[in-house]
Amino acid sequence: MSSSVYTINKGIGKSIEFHGLKAQYIWYFAALVVSLLVLFAILYIASSGMMVCLGLTGGLGALGGIKIFTLSSRYGEHGMMKAIARRQVPKVLRSYSRRFFQGLERNDINEAVRDGEVKELTGLAGN
After folding, report:
1. Is 118 exposed, middle or buried (0-12, 13-18, 19+ CB in 10 A)?
2. Is 113 in contact with 121 (CB distance < 8 Å)?
3. What is the per-residue pLDDT for 79?
4. pLDDT digit string (tens) for 24-53?
5. Residue 57: CB atoms within 10 Å
6. pLDDT digits (tens, 9 = 90+) for 61-117
7. Is-contact 83 75, C-beta < 8 A?
8. CA-to-CA distance for 100 and 112, rounded, in angstroms?
9. How far apart are the first and last CA of the chain?
10. Which residues pair with 18 in a beta bridge?
11. What does the pLDDT read at residue 63?
């Protein structure tokens, strides 16, 4: 019987890839396998029947694996995190009061921009 050798790293500085799964999706797939193993053990101990255990864990494993491979191919290494971050950015900012801006002095704005604390007000600092 011959042993198989799996290569994981493709080079220095590149993210890991294993059978088409990139970066964090390898960990998602490992978490899926472990959770299915735990689910199978719980169902088997609860004596719900071998076919029910195999059918449920096999079906959930197939659906979860397909979903993880789809996410890996669609978003790539960092794309899903970027998509989640993009959804959390508000479309518009509404202010019903000028009180916050009236309390600021020009020196406060310049110091905040210089220190890097405020990046949104960089257009106001040059005025």
Report:
1. middle
2. yes
3. 74
4. 888 888 999 999 999 999 999 988 888 989
5. 19
6. 999 999 888 888 787 777 777 777 878 887 776 767 777 666 666 666 666 666 655
7. yes
8. 15
9. 76
10. 21
11. 93
**What does the CA dihedral 71, 8, 28, 37 come to, rounded to 10 degrees?**
130
Per-residue tokens: 90: 């508000």
Q: In whole angstroms, what separates CA 107 from the centre of its chain? A: 40
HEC sequence for the chain? CCCCCCCCCCCCCCCCEECCEECHHHHHHHHHHHHHHHHHHHHHHCCCCHHHHHHHHHHHHHHHHHHHHHHHHHHCCCHHHHHHHHHHCCCCCCCCCCHHHHCCCHHHHHHHHHHCCCCCCHHHHCC
> Which residue, chain included where needed, has tokens 């799996």?
6
One-letter identity of residue 54: L
CA–CA distance, 80 with 87 (Å, rounded to integer) = 11
